[in-house]
Amino acid sequence: MNDGMSTEADWSPRLARAAGPHYLAIADAIEEDMRSGRLSVGTRLPPQRSLAAQLGIDFTTVSRGYAEAARRGLVEGRVGQGTYVRAAAPPPRAPVDLSMNLPPHFDDPALTARLWDEVATLREGGLDLLLRYQDPAGALRDRAAGAAWLAARLPKLDPETLVVTPGAQGGLLAVMAGLAQPGDAVCAEALTFPGFRALAAQAGLRLVPVLMDAQGMDPDAFARACREHAPKALYCTPTLHNPTTATLPLERRQAIVEIARRHGVTIVEDDAYAGLAPSAPPPMTALAPETAYHVAGLAKSVSPALRIAYVASPSVRAAGRVRAAVRASAAMASPLTAAIATRWIETGAAAAVTAALRAEAKARHAIALRRLPSELVQSAPDAFHLWLTLPEGWTRGEFVGRLGAAGVGVVPSDAFSLGAAPEAVRIGLGGPASRADVERALGLVAALLEAAPQVTASVV
After folding, report:
1. How many CB atoms lie within 10 A of CB 243?
2. Omega into 13 within 30° of 0, i.e. cis?
3. What residues contact residue 226 under an 8 Å CB cut-off, 6+ apart?
C-alpha cells in the first residue's frame, strides 16, 4: 500500500446523526467515508483510545466499531501498528423497504416457470378473451373457480352469490356502496386497514373505532359501539389482522356475530390472509351467511399483480347490488387477469404458490423472532408482517425517522389508528428480496431498539 507507506487520518465519525448504537455508527461512518473518498486505501485510522477520548465515549465502543468494520472487510488490524483501511469502497447498500405488506419472494424456479407456462395456455381463449366485455360479476367459470378456491373456508358457497371484483379494494368499495350513505356510522377495529380508512373518507362514512386487545376485537366494545352509534356495518379482518397479526378466537367470532344480528349490523369480513392460515377458525361469513359479506383477495395468498378478489354475498339479490356497483365504478374486473387466476386455481398452481409463500413466511418469521425482543413483538408464523411496540422513551416518529436515515422503511401506527395512535410500528417481512436482506434490516431495527432515543433540540 503506497509502497509500504501509510498516513494516519485526521478522522472522526459523526455520531450525532447516527441511527443505532455508536459502535455500528462508527463502522457505518468508515464505510460511508471510504465511499466518499474521505478515507482511502492504506490510511491508518486513529488509535482507539484517542478516538474514544475525542468522542467522549468508552474505549470498548470504539473497539467494537473497529471490529464491526473489520467483519465487513473494510479495515484490518496490524499488530503493533494500528488499524488500516483495507479495500476499495464497497458499493452503496440498497435501502430495505419493510413498509409494504407484500408476499415474499420464494426460491422455486420450477414453480415460477409453471406459473408462466400456465399463463401461456390462455392463448386458447382466442380474441374473445381480449376483445370482449364480460359480465360485471365475472364469467361463470371465473366465479366457479372463486367458489372452489374458497371452498375450504366457505364450503356451501353458491357461485351465483359470488362477484369477481378488481382487487379487494374494489370489492370493499362495491359492498360499501350498497350498505352505507355519507354520514352513516361504520364500526371497525381501532387499528384498521389504511385502504378502508381511505375508502370511508372518500365515501363520507363515519368510522367508529372498536377497542382491541392481543386477541383482536373486543365483543363487549363492539356491543357498546352498536348501542351508542347504531352503525350500518362492521368492517373487520379477523384472521391475521393488519397490522397486529391477531387472529380472532372462535368464541369471539360467535359473540360478535350474535351482537351484529341483535343490532341489525351487516358484517363486512376482509379475509385477505385466511388462505395463509389454514388452521384459523371459520370465517364470520360461515357463522352468519345471512348477514355477512366475505371479501377474499388473491393479493396476499397468490399474487398482488392479479388484482382479483371474490366477494361472497348473503344472497343472489345482494350479489346483484355488488355487481351493479362494480359496473358503475370499474365496468368489470379484468377478464384477462381473472382468467389467469382461474387457470392457476384449476390446475393447482395457486395452491402451490400459497404453500410456497407460507414456507417463506415461516422462515422470515423465524429470523424476526431471533433478531427482535420477543416482549415487544406481536406476530404469527403465517403472516408477512409483525407489530412492534416501542420501548419506553421512544416515539414512533423518531423511531421511523432514524430507521429511515439508516435505509430501512417501516410504517408508524398512525396509518392504522382510528383514535389515539400507540407508540408502535408495522414491519413488513415480505418486501425484501431475500432472507439476507431481512436479516440485515432487522439487525438495524434491533440495534436501534438497544439504543437510547436521541435527544433532540428544543424548538423555540
Report:
1. 28
2. no
3. 187, 259, 260, 262, 263, 265
Domain boundaries, the chain: 2-85, 96-105+352-450, 133-347
Q: What is the pLDDT of residues 376-411, one digit of tens each?
A: 999 999 999 999 999 999 999 999 988 988 889 999
Cα 158 to Cα 76, 267, 319, 351, distances in angstroms = 69, 19, 11, 21
Q: Residue 437, Cα to own-chain centre: how many angstroms?
A: 16
Domains 96-105+352-450 and 133-347 are alike in CATH topology: no
Q: In CATH, what number does 133-347 get?
A: 3.40.640.10
Nearest to 196 by CA among 156, 218, 167: 167
CATH code reported for the domain at 96-105+352-450:
3.90.1150.10
Angle at which helix 335-347 crosses helix 109-120, to 10 degrees, equals 130
CA atoms of 329 and 290, how far apart (whole Å): 26
E strand segments, 237-353: 266-270, 292-297, 309-312
Instruction: Work out the pLDDT band at 92, boundaries 50, 70, 90.
Output: low
pLDDT, one tens digit per residue, over 307-362 is: 999 999 999 999 999 999 999 999 999 999 999 999 999 999 999 999 999 999 99
The CATH code of domain 2-85 reads 1.10.10.10
pLDDT of residue 350: 98
SS3 (DSSP) at 452: coil
Q: Which amino acid is at 285?
A: T
Q: Give dist(CA 361, CA 104) in Å, integer.
A: 7
Residue 254 CB burial class (10 angstroms; 0-12, 13-18, ≥19): middle
Name the nearest CA neighbour of 285 among 309, 304, 302, 266. 266
Q: How far apart are CA 2 and CA 386, in angstroms?
A: 50
Give the predicted TM-score (pTM) of the model.
0.81
